[in-house]
Amino acid sequence: MGSCCFKKIALAVPINNDAGDGTLPLRVPKWKRGALIGEGAYGKVYECLNLETGELHAVKHIELLGTPEQIYREVYFLKKEIFMLKNLYHKNIVQYLYTEINNDCNGVDIMMEYVSGGSMRHLLNKFGKFEEPMAGLYINQVLEGLKYLHSQGIVHRDIKSANILVTQDGIIKLSDFGASKKLKLDFVGDKDELCRSLKGSPYWMAPEIARRSGHNFAADIWSVGCVMIEMLTGSPPWSSVSRTVKDVMELITSGQTPPLPLGVSLECRKFIEECLQEEPTKRPTARALLDHEFLKERMNFDNNSMTQAGKLYN
């Protein structure tokens, strides 16, 4: 059997999922790929032009390489990601559009909403660290997105500045769900329902993930604390202590927390410290953090009517 034929069969194999029959559509692409705008462990992201509508989209390309067993495994998890994305509708979540298979069958392309401002990491590299009001403006929206995801039973597991996109109007969009996991909606913390796989990026990784002791939604809250450090210092957490992944993983599993930014307000420090509680059950939920003193005292905006703060200008 030719490799292209095999991959089409692999992509057509259904999975158990309430969102549909589990198959990916075999469609002829009607778009043109542009410049590379992002790259990570779960694929490369390009600009693309929809040749039917003239709209700009982002396309995440995942190559299908390896043995038949490896391809089946990758396709299985890829479908789970797609069917998860298909049912997410929130202004702080990047919008899924559709999926296509390459003409040469060497990969799958996931079409997403195009966010012209780029990632938060891009903004930090370009403009430097953020002051507290800006950090609060952005983290408030990150929490709104996480509150929605968690209400849908989804733990993101890779919250970091590179996966947080910003529109021209300063709207935050959570992206890259390659590491995400859907838990049961009636999840209440039963140890048998905890995720135990090693997923995410080490510098933002919660200790329970690093130890593989079982994790849930609270792992995302740890990452929120890490993103706060990243915004307020301009550098990833742990950068002032170590630059090797091995050393960082040892620090995390030994029960240490990343150094906090200097010169921040008491409310901001408390916010970060609560996110970085070593015991997951002691961390606040996304919903609770939205009512935290740091956001209530410092943020003078309504999330439904954004102020000029956070907008991008050419």
UniProtKB/TrEMBL annotation:
Question: What's a single GO MF annotation on this record?
Answer: ATP binding
Where would I find the Protein kinase domain in this sequence? 31-295
Keywords on this record?
ATP-binding, Kinase, Magnesium, Metal-binding, Nucleotide-binding, Serine/threonine-protein kinase, Transferase
Binding, Mg(2+): 163, 176
The active site of this protein is located at 158
One Pfam match: Pkinase
Q: Which PANTHER family match?
A: MITOGEN-ACTIVATED PROTEIN KINASE KINASE KINASE 19-RELATED, SERINE/THREONINE PROTEIN KINASE
Could you identify this protein by its name?
Protein kinase domain-containing protein
Q: Which organism is it from?
A: Stentor coeruleus
